[in-house]
Amino acid sequence: QVQLVESGGGLVQPGGSLRLSCKAPGSIFSIAIMAWYRQAPGKERELVTSIGSFGSTHYADSVKGRFTISRDNAKNTVILQMNSLKPEDTGVYYCNAYKVPFDYWGQGTQVTVSS
Fold it and tell me: Which tens digits make up the pLDDT trace of 101-110?
Protein backbone atom coordinates (compact mmCIF):
# COMPACT_ATOMS: atom_id res chain seq x y z
CA GLN A 1 0.00 0.00 0.00
CA VAL A 2 1.47 3.33 -1.07
CA GLN A 3 1.51 5.95 1.66
CA LEU A 4 1.52 9.67 1.21
CA VAL A 5 2.56 11.28 4.47
CA GLU A 6 1.14 14.75 5.12
CA SER A 7 2.05 17.25 7.78
CA GLY A 8 1.62 20.90 8.69
CA GLY A 9 -2.05 21.53 9.31
CA GLY A 10 -3.40 23.42 12.30
CA LEU A 11 -5.28 26.42 13.57
CA VAL A 12 -4.41 29.88 12.29
CA GLN A 13 -6.01 33.30 12.44
CA PRO A 14 -7.35 35.00 9.32
CA GLY A 15 -4.50 36.57 7.41
CA GLY A 16 -2.02 34.06 8.74
CA SER A 17 0.07 31.43 6.98
CA LEU A 18 0.51 27.68 7.06
CA ARG A 19 2.81 25.32 5.22
CA LEU A 20 1.71 21.82 4.32
CA SER A 21 4.03 19.08 3.13
CA CYS A 22 3.45 15.68 1.59
CA LYS A 23 6.09 13.01 1.16
CA ALA A 24 5.67 10.23 -1.40
CA PRO A 25 7.75 7.21 -2.37
CA GLY A 26 10.43 8.22 -4.86
CA SER A 27 9.18 5.89 -7.59
CA ILE A 28 5.80 7.61 -7.46
CA PHE A 29 6.89 11.18 -6.85
CA SER A 30 9.21 11.36 -9.84
CA ILE A 31 6.47 10.70 -12.40
CA ALA A 32 3.23 11.76 -10.75
CA ILE A 33 1.16 14.89 -10.89
CA MET A 34 1.08 15.97 -7.25
CA ALA A 35 -1.93 17.86 -6.02
CA TRP A 36 -3.70 19.20 -2.98
CA TYR A 37 -7.45 18.89 -2.56
CA ARG A 38 -9.58 20.14 0.27
CA GLN A 39 -12.96 19.29 1.69
CA ALA A 40 -14.92 21.74 3.78
CA PRO A 41 -17.68 20.54 6.11
CA GLY A 42 -20.78 19.68 4.10
CA LYS A 43 -19.07 20.27 0.77
CA GLU A 44 -17.51 18.13 -1.91
CA ARG A 45 -13.78 17.65 -2.18
CA GLU A 46 -12.25 20.24 -4.53
CA LEU A 47 -8.92 20.64 -6.29
CA VAL A 48 -6.85 23.43 -4.76
CA THR A 49 -3.64 23.19 -6.77
CA SER A 50 -1.46 20.77 -8.69
CA ILE A 51 2.07 20.54 -10.01
CA GLY A 52 3.32 18.30 -12.79
CA SER A 53 6.51 16.29 -12.82
CA PHE A 54 8.18 19.05 -14.84
CA GLY A 55 6.87 21.82 -12.60
CA SER A 56 3.82 23.13 -14.41
CA THR A 57 1.25 24.41 -11.93
CA HIS A 58 -2.47 24.95 -11.71
CA TYR A 59 -4.42 26.86 -9.05
CA ALA A 60 -8.06 27.20 -8.23
CA ASP A 61 -9.24 30.78 -8.72
CA SER A 62 -10.04 31.04 -5.03
CA VAL A 63 -6.39 30.59 -4.00
CA LYS A 64 -4.48 32.30 -6.82
CA GLY A 65 -2.00 34.81 -5.50
CA ARG A 66 -2.20 33.38 -1.97
CA PHE A 67 -1.10 29.74 -2.24
CA THR A 68 2.07 28.38 -3.81
CA ILE A 69 2.78 24.76 -4.63
CA SER A 70 6.32 23.49 -5.14
CA ARG A 71 8.23 20.24 -5.42
CA ASP A 72 11.39 19.29 -3.56
CA ASN A 73 12.62 16.50 -5.80
CA ALA A 74 15.55 15.65 -3.53
CA LYS A 75 13.14 14.89 -0.69
CA ASN A 76 10.24 13.49 -2.75
CA THR A 77 8.07 16.12 -1.12
CA VAL A 78 5.46 18.56 -2.34
CA ILE A 79 4.96 21.76 -0.40
CA LEU A 80 1.88 23.96 -0.17
CA GLN A 81 2.60 27.42 1.17
CA MET A 82 -0.66 29.11 2.17
CA ASN A 83 -0.63 32.84 2.89
CA SER A 84 -3.36 35.37 3.62
CA LEU A 85 -5.59 32.59 4.84
CA LYS A 86 -9.33 33.15 5.01
CA PRO A 87 -12.02 31.37 7.04
CA GLU A 88 -13.30 29.83 3.81
CA ASP A 89 -9.97 28.01 3.43
CA THR A 90 -10.95 25.85 6.38
CA GLY A 91 -11.18 22.15 5.64
CA VAL A 92 -9.34 18.88 5.48
CA TYR A 93 -6.51 19.06 2.99
CA TYR A 94 -5.56 15.91 1.11
CA CYS A 95 -2.41 15.20 -0.83
CA ASN A 96 -2.85 13.30 -4.11
CA ALA A 97 -0.41 11.57 -6.44
CA TYR A 98 -1.83 10.77 -9.86
CA LYS A 99 -0.38 9.05 -12.88
CA VAL A 100 -2.31 6.48 -14.87
CA PRO A 101 -2.87 3.79 -13.68
CA PHE A 102 -2.46 4.92 -10.08
CA ASP A 103 -4.23 7.46 -7.92
CA TYR A 104 -3.00 7.69 -4.32
CA TRP A 105 -4.27 9.80 -1.43
CA GLY A 106 -2.93 10.92 1.89
CA GLN A 107 -4.86 10.64 5.12
CA GLY A 108 -5.73 14.35 5.24
CA THR A 109 -4.67 17.17 7.51
CA GLN A 110 -7.02 19.66 9.13
CA VAL A 111 -6.64 23.37 8.41
CA THR A 112 -8.78 25.72 10.46
CA VAL A 113 -8.78 29.46 9.87
CA SER A 114 -10.54 31.22 12.69
CA SER A 115 -10.15 34.08 15.10
Answer: 989 999 999 9
